[in-house]
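Hi V.,

You were right to ask for the full record rather than a summary. Here it is.
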Amino acid sequence: MIVRPSTALPLVHRQTGRDDRADRAAPTLAAMTKRNQAVGAYGERCAVRHLIEAGLRPVARNWRCPNGEIDIIAWEGGVLAFCEVKTRRTDDFGSPAEAVVPAKARRLRGLAARWLAETGTTADEVRFDVLAASRSRRRSGWRS
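Predicted structure:
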């Protein structure tokens, strides 16, 4: 038995002879963050491509202020769409769209108001879109 000095909890390794996965170190937080950022960036590229194919004209990507970030801002005629992109590698923790909870929606409305004020942009109508991309375990490829 090996004891981790940081937590003093026992860490048990099993040798089965068939697979050494139990002895491999778990990915570090930095590696997981980098992987999640890559997945998110891929989802945003797919979302922009989808919006353009649907006839929207993106005017800003990853707009940031101290209160947060808006993933994509795009025009569709006189309508300005503020888009939140959610990407997941699996549906183990729910669908990507389920991650947009009421608190997140309130924050997006505030960010949109700030963007409009800071840029002096006016629109006939404003809407909020959630674009979800996920990789299915049963199928290869991405769906949105």
